Every structure is written in structure tokens, then in C-alpha cells.
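One thing: could you explain this record?
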Amino acid sequence: MSGSRPYQTTDRNLALELVRVTEAAAVAASRWTGRGQKNEADGAAVEAMRLAFDQVGIDGTVVIGEGEMDEAPMLYIGEKVGAGGPAMDIAVDPLEGTSLTAKNVPNALTVVALAEAGNFLHAPDIYMDKIAVGPGLPEGVVSLDASVGANLRELAKAKKVEVSDLTVCTLERERHEDMIAQAREAGARVALISDGDVAGIIAAAMPDSGVDIFIGSGGAPEGVLAAAALRCTGGQLQARLLFENDEQVARAQTMHAADPRRLLSLTDLAAGDVLFSATGVTGGPLLRGVRRWGDRAITHSIVMRSKSGTVRFIEGHHNFATKTWSPV
């Protein structure tokens, strides 16, 4: 995606095409909202996203997907998608928050990010430690190698506020209990989310979200997707892969040559020019959920481009009677 005018036009067109992809997945998943069947919701989103990609003018390779080829029937790592065009890496989470959708609770999203080939970390489906803050702060203001208290003090100093003014977002997990205790001991508030750390990390980079920092471990694929979003918003993110055994280390080494245990910067995760799109399935602070009635639906999406730093919110009105992708 160089600086020439044809590529700038292609960028803009692709940004809108990505919105159509996440919209399709969100509409399909929304049929299962609140029905207690997370696998069915995920399957519907995967199928719809796969079909929508057939209309996108790229030669895409899924580098962050639903799993390995023998684990996932569609949108698996290494799968080719698109109608032909420039070679692109694709990171997808057809339904970020399957349990959220099944329970009809906030923050379920459908997510796609796109970059030129070779610019996304090929992350195995393991845990990743993450820390993220928003734009306009000194580079390296927080670090995974610093204590929770030290990070909060440095962040408060950079924002010219008290630690008690800060809100830490993290997944509500037993593994985070010590970190949560340290954050509260330092004086910060803690916002716990049940699932969906992509939304939580993006919230840390949005000025009106009420979240100042995200800390905690979650899926490595979600870390790459969140990094793509933060590349567009100007936020900061550090990460480190967390391995449970030597087999996971060996798998990571086959996916990228550098030391798999190293501290990863934002551009280690998502480099080059990046496009990002997400559509809400269930409503939350970032996006409204899908609203359906009869043969129509309304979707709410965010689309971002790192090249321009533009963030757009798009409301889509859909008529299933005329949609070519409408898996209603």
C-alpha cells in the first residue's frame, strides 16, 4: 500500500469492503443472540464471513484465524480468500465473544484486520500477556517488565492525573487476581470484562471509553487483532507469548524466526499499513449491537486505516430480500 494515488483509492475501497465482511458475520451471528448456543453462533459468523470475502478484491492469506486446517473447516490459518488482487495478510475473529453472544451480554464483535503480506505476526493459538494504553502518551510509558503499581504511577504522571483517576480494564479470570489486587492497592479502579479482550484493548485507546489501560493475558490471535486497531488509533501495546510446554515453543518458532519469548512491540504484531474493521453483535461501549426486525437489520461498525489515522463509525441498514450474502 504505497503512497501512489491508485493504492490510496484501493485502500479506501478495501476499507469499505472489510466493513461488509464484518457486517455479514455480525448479522449471521445475531440470529443466535441469547439462545445459549455459542458454537452455532460462531459457525454462522464463520460461514457468512467466508462468503463475504469471496467478493473482496484481494489475494488474501489467513494468518490469524479459527485454528489449523485440521481444526477449522473455514477461515483456518493458511487458507486463501478473496476474489484476486494484491497479496494481503488477513487476521480474523469471526465472532469475538461467542459466550457473550450466547448469553446476549455486551461486547461481542466480528473483527477483521488486513495488511500487506508478511506484516502480521503469525501467532499460535496460545495465551499472550498484554498491556495497552491510548495515544498521545510518551513512548514506553508502560511496560510488561514493570510492576503494576509502577505502570499506573507513570501513566498517571503522563496524563497529569492521580492514580485514583485511572481505570484498568482486564478479563475477569482467576489468573488476574493478583494483578487486580495490585491495581486496587495502588489506588486505581478496575473494570472487569467476562470475555472479549479485543474490545477491552481498543477501549484503552478511545478517549471517551472511560478506560485508561488494559493489562492481562488473553489469546495471542486477539492480541494481533488488537494491535492492528491500535496501529490505526496511535495507541501503544506490548505483548509476550506465554508458553505452557516445549511443543508450543516449537510451534511458534516455525511461524516466525525471531526469539518467540521476546517482548513484542506494537509493530512486531502488526506492521506496515493496516486496515481494521469490527461490527457489533451485542451492544457495548464501543459499538451498538445488531438490531433485527422482519427481513431487515441495522448494524453499527468501526473501520480504521493506519495510513490516515481515520476512524469511522458506520451505521448500515440491510434488507435481507436483496442482500447477496444474507444468511438470515
Remarks:
- The two ends are 35 Å apart (CA to CA).
- The chain is about 30% helix and 25% strand.
- The first helix runs from residue 5 to 30.
- Confidence is low (pLDDT under 50) at residues 1-10.
